[in-house]
Amino acid sequence: MRATGLILLRRAAIAVFLAVVPPSHGASLRPAAETGECSLEGTLPATVAAVDEDFELLLDDGRRAVLAGLDFPPLDRRDLRAAIRSRLAAWLSGRDVFLGAFASTLDRWGRAPTRIYTSPAEGGESTPLVSVAEALLLAGDARFRPDSTAAACAKTYLAAEARARDASAGLWSRPEFRPIDVSNSAAAADLNSRKGMIVVVGAIRSVGESRRSFYLNFGDKLRDSFTVVIPRHNLANFGQIEPRSFVGRRARVRGFIETGSRIEIATPAEIEFLDGDASR
Predict the structure, then answer these.
(1) Domain match, 206 and 157 both
(2) What is the mean pLDDT of residues 9-37?
(3) Domain, as residue range, for 253
(4) What are the DSSP calls for 175-237, one per residue?
(5) Region of residue 130 (phi > 0: left; psi between -120 and 50: alpha; otherwise: beta)
(6) Quick one: pLDDT at residue 1?
(7) Cβ atoms within 10 Å, residue 179
(8) Distance (Å, rounded) from C-alpha 244 to C-alpha 189?
């Protein structure tokens, strides 16, 4: 990688700047944080050689990285995936970046979970750096996925996603990706055939509990209700909360659905309370 390019990128990283999203992502980003876990601090230079069909970033030194905290369209939406991957590849392939690892070890597929900063698609190497993940979320090209490795960036990523969702940008313009209102029993029943990450919204009607878990029920009839499960061993992650106090509160929840209309959550990033904001 060219030394001049790295020097220019580093100068951009430590400057106080206005971040600009690539034109293809059509929205402005807030200035990137310079310190903290979700920032330029601790990042190292690298060069992206290619972006593969699974949205993995292949680096020119042979390493593989993945943008932690992002959920792209499922495999059965090949055309949509291909369009998003094409835009991302056009931006990043051959580009110098700063890469920050979220974990000290690789994931089970041999990839490094990362956050990545680089110059805008049509900017030179001396232009301000932007967060690739935030740009994708702002464009609606991805949804926030509550990966444990990306917990440090959860607030930042959720804020970027909210702007895209409120504007019905990208994926959020498509009904199949918008939050599912599980107050509707028919909609909750339809989840029995769904797999992968979902985002739901509704009011918590009741809270049940067992020796191992709490159960947030979003319907009046438990048999037909969508349920969010919080295992007791995960309660410490939520701080000083009392799940029984959630009754009557409106919430947006995200997670992975595998069997039936229920998901299990482990962190606060997976549940957002929307009291007083019925539009969301």
Answers:
(1) no
(2) 46
(3) 179-273
(4) GGGSPEETTSHHHHHHGGG--EEEEEEEE--EEEE-SSEEEEE-SSSGGG--EEEEEGGGGGG
(5) beta
(6) 47
(7) 17
(8) 24
Residue type, 114: T
Tell me, yes or no, whether 88 and 140 share the same domain: yes
Strands (E), the chain: 44-51, 57-59, 64-67, 70-71, 96-101, 112-118, 130-131, 143-144, 180-181, 196-203, 206-209, 213-217, 227-231, 250-257, 262-264, 271-273
Euclidean distance between CA atoms 90 and 103, whole angstroms? 27
Count of CB atoms situated within 10 Å of the CB of 277: 10
**Domain presence at residue 278:** no
Say if residue 183 is in the same domain as residue 263. Answer: yes
Run of H or E including 246: none
Residues 212 and 239 in one domain: yes
Q: Is the pLDDT of residue 17 over 50?
A: no
Residue 54 CB contacts under 8 Å (≥ 6 apart), including other chains: none
205 and 75 belong to one structural domain: no
Asked whether 253 and 199 are in contact (CB, 8 A), the reply is yes
| CATH number, domain with residue 138 | 2.40.50.90
Q: Residue 153 and residue 134: Cα distance in Å, rounded? A: 10
pLDDT tens column, 119-173: 877 666 667 788 999 999 999 999 999 998 999 999 999 999 999 999 999 999 9
- Which CATH number characterizes residue 214's domain? 2.40.50
